[in-house]
Amino acid sequence: MKRREGLAKLTGREPYVDDLPFDGGLWGATVRSPLPRGRIREIRFGAGVDWSEMIVVDHRDVPGRNVIKLIVDDQPVLAAGEVRHVHEAVLLLAHPSRALLRRAVRAVEVVVDPLPPVLDYRRPPAREQIQHGDDNVFKRLAIDKGDVDAAFAAAAHVVEGIYQTGAQEHVYLEPQGMLAWLEGEGEREVVVVRGSMQCPYYVHEALCYALGRPAERVRVIQAPTGGGFGGKEEFPSGVAIHAALLALKARRPVKLVYERGEDMAATTKRHPSWVRHRTAFDAGGNLLAQDVEVVLDAGAYVTLSPVVLSRGVIHAAGPYRCPNVRIRGRAVLANFVPAGAFRGFGAPQTLFACERHMDRCARVLGLEPAELRRRNLLRDGDATATGQRIDDGTDREALLDRALKLAGWEAKRTAHRSWNAEQPFRRRGLGLATFFHGAGFTGAGEVYLASRAHVAGLADGRVEVRTAATEMGQGTITIFTQIAAARLGLEPEQVVIAEPDTARVPNSGPTVASRTAMIVGRLVEKACDDLRRRLGVGDAAPGAAVVEAIRAWHRQHPGEEPVGEGRYEPPPGIHWDEEHYRGDAYGTYGWAAYVAEVEVDLRTYVVTVIDFVAVQEVGKVLNETLARGQIQGGVVQAIGWALLEELKVEGGAMRNNQLTNYVIPTSEDVPPIRVAFVENPYPHGAQGAKGIGELPMDGPAPAIANAVADALGVDPCAIPLTPERLMALVEGEDEAPVAGAA
Ligand code: MOS
User: Fold this and answer.
1) Tens of pLDDT along 51-84?
2) Is the CB of 343 under 6 A from ligand 1?
């Protein structure tokens, strides 16, 4: 099936938030902190602006709690007294003229008395830098299995390494933006917000909390959204509150859309990471023990860091069989824009370390990288680091073999040797990564979400799928149409996908964690089944009978719709111990083996990915074009993270907040990406689907760094592997520090 909204997007007819009309409305803008940490002494409103005609909002205008509600109540809607990062929101302005508004933002001076900031999360804080608890640690997590110390004492080989990754900007196509207005009067007044977001019910909850309003007096509608990648998971809540505060003060509609430079400087980033591995093997190259320490740079506020750390530590040991595992993780404060959700959610960071380390181990052990992995990959019946027994029938060695074969690994290795010997300035290499990604929320998360989906029969006989799952370029509208049409025996045109509007759709949870097709799609199937039951139409009856029954229902019950509901139930046999971090961390996992081929120019130290193979098992592939797009997009985003994208941070602020100097991959940087799916339907996902969106972000970076190691005989342990860092490595200097916090 083709993308249902594809033509509207292709022709520019799709109305993004910046396209929405708002007659008689005002533009909003944000005044931000100039310093990474300090106390606000004074706010000066400069000359050249008629302040009497400007709407001005500060923390005193927040009617509920001055908190952006998420996990910990630490992040203010608007700074009140203290600031913790550059570009933190301090004041909001609104005016009908965008030009005057820009001048006004420049005319405000936020005077801050500086306090000592934390600029490097890896260094222990001095006493005067403490801002959270007694050590600036937002969250600690531990995983323990077996007896690690005894295993190290008995090891034939012990291999150590430290691996680091930098921050990453989402660069969604559409910047953050919200339109807010008021409907109704007095006690019936409703604040309505429409904008770019992944999670309407997160925005709804945060609005209720900050505005001090009951749920029915807040309504959130997702506008067509130009990309999210996690950047529109939690951040839009703050933008929505800001737009609503301005609309409440102005009593007029307000549109708040970030400029690209503002968006890049002021919004969340991928967590930078520092990961230390110490690994014990027996004489046969079998894993005996893994001792892993994970440190994430969380930025100035907690946001989602505890959950990102959770996924990070659970994936830190890789898809391997190891009887003794000790993982210690912590997410640490730094006075930088908060790190937040970003495709992969901690797993890309720890899997970079794990898979780069596996290659280092292979070299120490004198084994081929593929052979070391082959000996240690989980087989059915083995358990993960949390003790989750894997028994899904997927042959992970076969995935590896398929990737090696598709890449032409053996032939290319031989060819590279002679090619490299002949070339004066160029070297080629091959690198591998085997990895996994847990699908859906971690642990008991899906149970707490208690998601619901509805499928309603409309008067004309069509059905409407009602969920809070958002389309942001990944294909939700198309996939849900396929799922509902198949379940009810209808044509795609007979299925309508409701706009995610909290006044119309139930809370089916956030559009995150690779959960939409697998988990919410399954709820859509259940809602379809429930609709059939309510209509008295048997499971085997054709679509025409469903349509006829819907029409008959409307004739018999005027003004009342038949609605089927699907509610989340955990797959049987899933047990998670949140306290000890033991058990079934996810309902299921996607599995993958990726191979990168690179060419390095020794004059410029530029690394070019010249070929890429991505083999994965993601359950049943529901729409091959969309699935391949997810994989290719993830690989490209990971190429950027691995090689190109470097945040230049000075004085706690991103300095290269432009698309001219924050370099993301273009079509010039994209190799042929050969995608292969091995299908193994997951019984508890829609039509057998598992999650797919995040998996392809995990494997490419270590595969590419391993290929550079193969090409040059060096040991790159930090990304982005920019020409500067690679030159320092080859020429034997210390590696350049990883940007993102310092
Ligand atoms: Mo996400 S990074 O689970 O939107």
Assistant:
1) 999 999 999 999 999 999 999 999 999 999 999 9
2) yes
727 CA from centroid of ligand 1 (Å): 34
Q: Specify the CATH number of the domain 451-567.
A: 3.30.365.10
Q: Which residues contact 174 (CB under 8 A, 6 or more apart)?
A: 16, 17, 18, 196, 225, 226, 227
b (16+ CB within 10 A) / e for 674-694:
bbbbbebebebbbbbbbbbbb
Site to substitute for ligand 1 among 203, 222, 225, 233, most atoms within 8 A of C-beta: 233
Q: Which atom of ligand 1 is least distant from the CA of 515?
A: 3
Q: Return the pLDDT at 528.
A: 98
CATH T-level assignment (fold) for domain 273-441+581-730: Aldehyde Oxidoreductase; domain 4 (3.30.365)
What dotted CATH number matches 6-115+176-257? 3.90.1170.50
* Per-residue pLDDT, 733: 72
Nearest ligand 1 atom to the CA of 511 is 4
Whether 341 lines ligand 1, by a CB cut-off of 6 Å, is yes
Q: Do domains 6-115+176-257 and 273-441+581-730 have the same CATH topology?
A: no
Query: 343 C-alpha vs ligand 1 centroid, how far in Å?
Result: 5
| CA-308 nearest atom, ligand 1 | 2
Tokens standing for 73?
A: 């109540």
CA 169–ligand 1 middle distance (angstroms) = 14
Euclidean distance between CA atoms 247 and 255, whole angstroms: 9
Other beta carbons within 10 Å of 262: 18
